[in-house]
Design goal:
The chain has 756 residues and is an all-alpha fold. It has a domain of 69 residues: Alpha Horseshoe (Serine Threonine Protein Phosphatase 5, Tetratricopeptide repeat). It is built from 43 helices and no strands. Helix 5 runs antiparallel to helix 6 and helix 14 runs antiparallel to helix 15. The longest helix has 38 residues. It is elongated and about 120 Å long. The N and C termini lie far apart (145 Å). The relative contact order is 0.02.
């Protein structure tokens, strides 16, 4: 029996050894297969093979290292870090692996852990270059810049021929504010290896950081010349041109990136660039190709929907998104785009519902949060808008547009200190972005005490970006704020010379022409641009405003009709068309126009206000009150709605207590507006509060002595108070100013009743 047992044990032992050899052999085959996939950049397939090998042999540190690198290649940094740590723990004596893991820790901003690992490496080998560089970068991350420089200089002594170490030193010296030493280090890196693309890029980034844009551009061009298909060089040069408002020069480099990488993100970047350049057909061509790939189908179709909408094909745009949502009702990107388009159409309630649906589909969608904030802004619900923009920033700290919107929101709320701080924070994150600098200047322009800071910022902006039309427009806005119209005009003309299609500059010039009475110059200026771009919505709107100012109502109507045909969702165009009808005494037609607006956007305070005016002019008082009420509900801060509603209530002796509250609210918002002050005085009169009525109406007349209505009201109040001499003077002045007014007969009747 004992002999038999020994034989059985021996058999099992042999079987175990054989199985173990088979498992190891299979694991090695998986590694070899994974290596082949990795070399072909088929990283997902490589991951599968490496994981199979590790399942068989969990203690294979080298395989875990390969798996970590594969995870990193597909940007799965969470799993990459886990595998790097495991590999390092399994190979504690391999200091090169320890250094690689330490660099991963740097990416995760775990600077203390990286510092500890670097010290362990250097304890084993004080002259280990990777360990020294790791320690230097960890110390820099911990803001111990002096020590970081010292360690990096020691690394240079060990490897004086290594250009990368000098770029490290340059970055550290720049962080310390030592520009001369930084430039010397970056140049040394280039001298050591003139053919190093990385060295030229590092020197270019240095020049950009110190605002020497010409030198930065030159270095970026050298980098691209060295390796015409180098990904980072082309991306950096394209970004340089886009961010310095020379976007037209970026296209060749974006095309190189797209053609070289030939993946969806690169082609989408190119399509987005073409969109920004208003080259819709070219962008659609790129996106249609991307639509043929199932992986990029959705994102490409969403962008196509946006283009269709922007070019007036509204129904088709919604159909594209409907098709996507039919396939996947929880497509957060499609829902967010639908919300964006609905908001453009001023279908605000529908936009709000879609934005909320997008967030429900994907709570981590910063696009959905951003459009939710924009929707709340239109509804004038500033607090939920603030929360939405902050959430978008938290989800994606790189959303400069959310920072800018938040700063503007606080400007709107007159919270200028907060607006300035947000803009400064954005500028700290994006020191080379024109938009960030413009946001800060816009916040500083608001208050006169901030004008010296605004001037310093805008001077620097124009100096750094002399070819940027946005920079010159910003200088023009500053000059307008300090009431130097001549300088402002020069700034806007310079911006337009740099970019003839820059509508903001053109708009300011037209406004200056109109303000100085040069209406013919404004018309001619616009005509020159409309001949080149006859369907541009911005140009059409400006042209309509000039025609109205010149009382050319048929011309204004033709332009507005054309604009509405081009863009059926343009509510401002409807609003102006309604005003044309009012001036042309076509009240029923105007009423129909504004009713169409409120059907599209029930929260349009301006449309409801206009309907109130129209119905009041047609003596339909209940309808007028109803629309003024809706206007005030839509925008409790609308002084116009509050004033007009107070006036109608007072004129009809209806709810005078509410009329007083509304008039006082309007006065608080527009304390120096004569028409608002007149309304308040008239409400006081209707309530029988004659002393307040008198002083208030006297203020209105003082502010605008040529308004017959104000003098009439003051005369009536004086007569009621028994101040006949004062009443006679005011009433005679009213009749002198406008003898054919609706109140002239009543003024004559009141005059006849005066005793003295």
């Amino acid at each position: 029996m004992l002999r038999l047992a020994a034989i059985v044990i021996l058999a099992f032992s042999s079987l175990t050894v054989a199985c173990s050899k088979d498992v190891k052999a299979a694991a090695e085959r998986n590694v070899v297969s994974g290596d082949r996939y990795f070399e072909k950049k088929q990283f997902e397939e490589a991951i599968i093979e490496y994981r199979r090998s590790i399942q068989a042999v969990p203690s294979a540190g080298r395989t875990r290292l390969k798996l970590a690198r594969a995870y990193a290649a597909v940007n799965n940094f969470k799993d990459a870090y886990i595998e790097f740590r495991r590999a390092a723990d399994l190979m504690p004596t391999d200091i090169d692996v320890q250094a690689e893991v330490g660099n991963v820790m740097l990416l995760g901003r775990m600077f203390n852990d990286a510092k500890t690992r670097a010290r362990r490496i250097l304890e084993k080998d004080p002259n280990h270059l990777g360990g020294l560089l790791l320690l230097g970068n960890a110390l820099a991350g911990l803001q111990d810049l002096e020590s970081a420089v010292s360690v990096t200089e020691r690394a240079i002594l060990l490897a004086p021929e290594r250009d990368g170490t000098y770029t490290n030193l340059g970055a550290l010296q720049l962080a310390r504010g030592n520009r001369v030493e930084a430039e010397r280090a970056f140049k040394k890196a280039v001298d050591l290896n003139p053919k190093s693309v990385s060295a030229h890029l590092a020197l270019a980034n240095f020049y950009r950081a110190v605002h020497d844009l010409a030198a930065s551009e030159a270095e970026l061009k050298r980098a691209v010349q060295l390796e015409p298909t180098h990904f980072r060089a082309n991306v950096t040069l394209a970004s340089f041109y886009i961010e310095t408002n020379s976007a037209a020069r970026a296209e060749p480099y974006l095309r190189v990136v797209a053609e070289t990488r030939n993946d969806a993100p690169a082609w989408l970047d190119l399509a987005d660039y073409l969109l920004a350049q208003h080259r819709m057909a070219d962008a659609v061509s790129v996106l249609e190709q991307l639509s043929k790939n199932p992986e990029s189908y959705g994102v490409a179709r969403i962008r196509i929907a946006g283009i269709r909408h922007a070019t007036g094909r509204v129904t088709e745009a919604h159909a594209v998104l409907a098709d996507l949502l039919k396939r996947n009702p929880n497509n957060a990107e499609a829902l967010a785009m639908e919300a964006r388009l609905l908001l453009i159409e001023r279908r605000v309630d529908d936009a709000l519902a879609k934005a909320k649906a997008a967030i429900q589909a994907d709570p981590n969608s910063d696009d959905a949060q951003f459009i939710l904030g924009r929707t709340y802004i239109v509804r004038k619900e500033y607090e939920p808008a603030r929360r939405a923009f902050n959430e978008a920033r938290a989800l994606n700290p790189g959303r400069l547009d959310a920072d800018i919107e938040l700063s503007r929101l606080h400007i709107e709320r007159r919270e200028i200190d907060t607006a300035v701080q947000i803009a400064r924070d954005s500028l700290n994150k994006y020191p080379n972005r024109v938009e960030a600098r413009v946001a800060l200047i816009d916040a500083l322009i608001v208050r006169s005490e901030d004008h010296p800071q605004a001037f310093a910022q805008v001077q620097r902006l124009v100096k750094d970006y002399p070819e940027s039309p946005a920079a010159h427009v910003e200088f023009g806005k500053f000059h307008l704020a300090v009431k130097d119209q001549a300088a402002a005009r020069k700034d806007f003309e310079r911006a337009l010379a740099l970019d003839a299609s820059y509508l903001e500059a053109l708009g300011h010039l037209v406004a200056l022409d109109m303000a100085s009475g040069k209406t013919n110059d404004a018309r001619q200026r616009l005509f020159q641009h409309l001949t080149k771009r006859p369907d541009d919505p911005g140009l059409l709107m400006m042209s309509a405003k000039v025609a109205m100012a010149r009382h050319e109502l048929p011309q204004a109507e033709r332009v507005l009709r054309r604009l509405i045909e081009r863009d059926p969702t343009n509510l401002e165009a409807y609003d102006m068309l309604g005003r044309v009808y009012i001036q042309a005494k076509r009240l029923p037609a105007a009423t129909r126009e504004f009713n169409a607006i409120v059907q599209r956007d029930p929260h349009s305070s301006s449309a409801h206000t206009m309907l109130g005016l129209l119905y009041h002019a047609q003596r339909k008082v209940p309808e007028a009150i109803d629309h003024y009420d809706k206007a005030f509900e839509s925008d409790p801060h609308s002084a116009t709605a509050a004033n007009n509603l107070a006036w109608v209530l007072a004129e009809n002796d209806t709810n005078l207590d509410r009329a007083l509250q509304l008039a006082q609210a309007a006065k608080a918002q527009l304390p120096n507006e004569p028409i608002v002050i007149d309304t308040l005085g008239w409400v006081y009169y209707k309530q029988g509060i004659l002393p307040l009525a008198t002083t208030t109406l006297e203020e209105a007349v003082r502010l605008n002595p040529n308004a017959a209505l104000y003098s009439y009201h003051l005369g009536v109040v004086h007569a009621k108070a028994g101040e006949d001499a004062k009443a006679r003077k005011a009433l005679e002045r009213a009749i002198q100013l406008d003898s054919k007014s609706a109140f002239a007969a009543d003024a004559q009747k009141t005059l006849a009743a005066l005793v003295y």
